[in-house]
């Protein structure tokens, strides 16, 4: 987790695979699902959506077999997230997202309710429903700030900035990107800091 937050993705990937090999031998299904989930998150961060889907689906299969509602919700939201980012299977993404949100709200887990809000905002972004997009980003940020989930806040600010940029609100988009950079810097993730700065330069808002 620490390597992933700091942007040391290759080291994190190696650690996850080592852990998975051990868990497959000992047969700990709960932890194996968690490891697959974390690997899926890692691949999402690197933009490898096919690999992310593969490991999130493996985690979902285990969660369904062992009857873990919480793990199922993680995977459903994660799959919805990558489908939306990749611009594919949007109907399925919405269905998965609704199921995930229902579980997180019933379990009253604020962190993941906030994460689902971000995913809904991305869905509205794809549909160009701008008012709803902004509304759900604001809801996500509010919840994640309340619980001080810096990693998720950073991702949400970046997603929010992309939305505002597509809306033509370049000044506000720049503000969100700067906020994302500040969060990633606090996490020690200089890789993401560099990526966002390069993106801002390409967009002419650095």
Write the layout of secondary structure elements.
Layout: H1 2-5, H2 9-26, H3 29-45, H4 49-66, H5 69-86, H6 90-107, H7 110-126, H8 130-146, H9 150-166, H10 170-187, H11 190-203
Structural features:
206 residues, Serine Threonine Protein Phosphatase 5, Tetratricopeptide repeat, 11 helices, disordered N terminus
Q: Return Rg in Å.
A: 17 Å
Mean pLDDT: 88
pLDDT below 50 for ≥5 consecutive residues: which ranges?
1-8
Percent of residues in helical segments?
A: over 70%
Characterize the main sheet. Answer: none
CATH architecture of the largest domain: Alpha Horseshoe
Q: In sequence order, what are the helices and strands, one letter per element?
A: HHHHHHHHHHH
CATH topology of the largest domain: Serine Threonine Protein Phosphatase 5, Tetratricopeptide repeat
Shape: globular
Count of distinct structural domains: 2
Strand-residue proportion: under 5%
CATH C-level of the largest domain: Mainly Alpha
Number of helices, counting only DSSP H or I runs of 4 residues or more: 11
CATH superfamily of the largest domain: Tetratricopeptide repeat domain
**Distance between the terminal alpha carbons, to the nearest Å?**
30 Å
Structural class: mainly alpha
Number of strands: 0
Q: What does this 3D model show about the protein?
A:
This protein is mostly helical and 206 residues long. The chain has two domains: 1-108, Serine Threonine Protein Phosphatase 5, Tetratricopeptide repeat; 109-206, Serine Threonine Protein Phosphatase 5, Tetratricopeptide repeat (Alpha Horseshoe). 85% of the residues lie in helices and 0% in strands. It has helices spanning 2-5, 9-26, 29-45, 49-66, 69-86, 90-107, 110-126, 130-146, 150-166, 170-187, 190-203. Helix 3 (29-45) packs parallel to helix 5 and helix 5 runs antiparallel to helix 6 (90-107). Residues 1-8 have low confidence and may be disordered.
């Amino acid at each position: 987790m620490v390597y992933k937050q700091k942007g040391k993705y290759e080291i994190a990937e190696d650690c996850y695979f080592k852990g998975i090999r051990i868990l497959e031998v000992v047969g700990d299904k709960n932890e194996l699902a968690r490891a697959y989930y974390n690997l899926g998150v890692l691949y999402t961060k690197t933009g490898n959506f096919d690999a992310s889907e593969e490991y999130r689906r493996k985690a979902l299969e285990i969660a369904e077999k062992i009857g873990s509602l919480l793990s199922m919700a993680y995977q459903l939201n994660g799959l919805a997230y990558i489908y939306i980012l990749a611009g594919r299977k949007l109907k399925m993404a919405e269905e998965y997202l609704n199921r995930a949100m229902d579980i997180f709200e019933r379990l009253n887990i604020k962190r993941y309710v906030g994460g689902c809000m971000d995913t809904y905002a991305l869905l509205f972004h794809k549909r160009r429903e701008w008012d709803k997009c902004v509304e759900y980003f604001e809801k996500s940020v509010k919840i994640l700030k309340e619980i001080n989930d810096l990693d998720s806040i950073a991702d949400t600010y970046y997603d929010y900035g992309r939305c505002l940029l597509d809306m033509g609100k370049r000044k506000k988009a720049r503000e969100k990107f700067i906020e994302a950079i500040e969060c990633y810097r606090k996490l020690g993730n200089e890789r993401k800091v560099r990526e966002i700065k390069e993106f801002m330069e390409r967009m002419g808002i650095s």
